[in-house]
Amino acid sequence: MYTLEHVSKTYAQSKRRITALQDVSLTIPKGQLVAIQGPTGGGKSTLLQMLGALDRPSIGRVALGEAELSHLPDRRLAGIRAKEIGFVFQGFNLIPTLTALENVETALEPLGVSADERRRRATEALGSVGLGDRGGHVPSELSGGQQQRVAIARALVKEPDVLLADEPTGNLDEQTRDDIMDLLEGLWRDRGLTLIVVTHDSAVAKRAERRLHIRDGAVTER
Amino acid sequence: MFFTYLRRELAGRRRQTAIIAIGMALAIALVMIVNSVSTGVRDAQAAVLESVYGVGTDLTVSQSPTPPAEGEAGGPRFEFGADAGTTTDGSTEISQSRLSAGPGSTTFDEADLASVQGLDGVAAASATLSLTNTTFDGELPDFQQSTQGTDQMPADGEQPAAPPQGGFDGAGGSAFDVDSFTVLGLDPASAAVGPLSAVELADGRGLEASDTGEAVAVLDAGYATTAELAVGDTIDVGGTEFEIVGTVSSTSADAATAANVYLPLDLAQSISGEEGMISSISVQAESADGIDALQAEIEEALPDATVSTQSDLAASVSGSLASASSLISNLGLWVSLAVLVAAFLIAILFTIQGVTRRTREFGTLKAIGWSNGRVVGQVAGESLVQGLIGGAVGLVLGLVGIWAVNLIAPTIGGSSGSDVVAGGPGGREMVMQAGGPGGGFGGAMPSAASSAEVVLQAPVTVSVIAIAIGLAIAGGLVAGAFGGWRAARLRPAEALRSVA
């Protein structure tokens, strides 16, 4: 479960100070599917980075279960990201020189999994997203939807508690968008994940159990 | 995963890998060649100097030259009395041979040898007396007839006196030959250290302990050939006939020995008028570690002496070998350093550029849990392998370059007292000057000349290979350290945000 208490985040940009999050307090129970919507620059991605232990708040507290994400050192945060949190990005963010299978394996690298086990689990994860026969292809040989499936496999191969998706369908056509959301929703149901999706797309947001709206750094429930 | 990722990155970014590797390879090859040639020049110096000072000589003791006293001539003086020479057919033939220390050279008391031999840390020591034998011979007219002819001026109407006769042209002219050769007086019982330790017997025998006081001589084989002398002949040294008992040649290829003629020290001293005097002491230390201490010890025992080590010895070589050494150690070193720095900078810049280009990649890896250390290790590993590829190519290039130098095999040689001459067969030969014997390293320039021509060989040593490997690793690590530092500074949130 996520707990955010009075979280604010400000950035210094040139000589200006930008407030990305302003006094945000909320809890996200384990296993919930949450959609975060809002205008560009409203603070969606910043909130997702707080939840993903990629950044710390300027003020306030962020906790994932017992882990105080706002206070842990970088090394511990990296460990939490490695074990408990999966990421899916709008631009897929695959390593261009690695094959689909190897890209999935990168998620297991920090966990110290043996090479054979890594290969087995990555193959299995690729199969679960419908790309069992594409393991040897590099990203440039795959379509956008296939690349996003590889990214989802990479996020899920370590069996995380949380899956954070930042505009996961933003670069995809409608059909592929629906396929990807079907996949994510299915995985969420099957695995009991906490799934948090940042999206502009209302069609995607409608699938969520809970919808949050963020504007000018302030979060409201819808 | 590390090696898979590394392999894929290097294969996937061939251009960057090739540029870094080529830069490193050129730099490493250049450093290898410069280092190898530098070693070759040092070996050439050693070969030249061994022929002069002998093998195993760690120190030499000499004294600085002093200018001749006022009114004292620098060179040998020949004095002929009124009755000197033999007169036949109106011509007088005169001849005189003088053995003396050369101009500018300094001799000192032989007792200093005993002082040196008595010091701790001295394994062996021997003294030499460096001399020059100058022979003056010629033909003069009979001056008696000349005197008679000019005593009385012819009166008016009288016929003038008969023109002078005799001399080399039969008309009162004179002709003189001046010939000189270098002589080294040494103790026949102490051949283990000193100039004779760097020679091998060409014919006959060498000087032996029993030759002390005997009029026997050993000649440089090259000089013997030039002078048309052989074992069993005699040679006039300072007016004394010496029996030639052997000829010797240098152990180093193409190098001449330290002197033209070698005599027992005692006879060299007595004939030259340098009784009880020597011009140099060659000292062999008991251990290489103790050379500096021994140098200080000798300097303390003999305050007026100049004590020089092998490194001073190398500095005493002048001419084109010194120029080659200077060129290699200065220009070569700086050029190779400049190329090396440029190669390192290229590697660093390309690595940093690569990290910048891969910001999203590293941000993503950090987002999925890769630690800073793992990301830095990946970047450093890639740079290290690029450096090693460059090292391997550089090693091959360097070996080819060294092979080419050895194929060309430039000759470095020379002789003391002559100007440097460059260019020889094929334009590859250089002639240089080398310090001769007896003068000591950096001390008095000897009167005896030494010439040497050494083929420059650039050896492939363990250190050359080690330098190539070391530079490759260092280059990779330095570039990797900078790239890794850059990667470590990437905050995952910022890295992902910057892409967005």
UniProtKB/TrEMBL annotation, chain A:
This is Putative ABC transport system ATP-binding protein. It holds the Pfam family ABC_tran. Keywords: ATP-binding, Nucleotide-binding, Transport. InterPro entries: AAA+_ATPase, ABC_transporter-like_ATP-bd, ABC_transporter-like_CS, ABC_transpr_LolD-like, MacB-like_ATP-bd, P-loop_NTPase. It comes from the Bacteria. Residues 2-222 form the ABC transporter domain. One of its GO terms (molecular function) is ATP hydrolysis activity. One of its GO terms (cellular component) is membrane protein complex. It comes from Agromyces cerinus subsp. cerinus.
Automatic annotation (TrEMBL), chain B:
GO terms for molecular function: transmembrane transporter activity. Residues 91-105 have a biased composition (Polar residues). Residues 17-300 form the MacB-like periplasmic core domain. InterPro entries: ABC3_permease_C, MacB_PCD, Macrolide_Exporter_MacB. The chain crosses the membrane at residues 17-37, 331-352, 388-409, 460-482. Keywords: Cell membrane, Lipoprotein, Membrane, Transmembrane, Transmembrane helix. GO terms for cellular component: plasma membrane. It is a multi-pass membrane protein. It comes from the Bacteria. It is found in: Cell membrane. Residues 69-90 have a biased composition (Low complexity). Residues 336-489 form the ABC3 transporter permease C-terminal domain. Signal peptide: none annotated. Residues 59-105, 136-172 are annotated as: Disordered. Belongs to the ABC-4 integral membrane protein family. This is ABC-type transport system, involved in lipoprotein release, permease component. It comes from Agromyces cerinus subsp. cerinus.
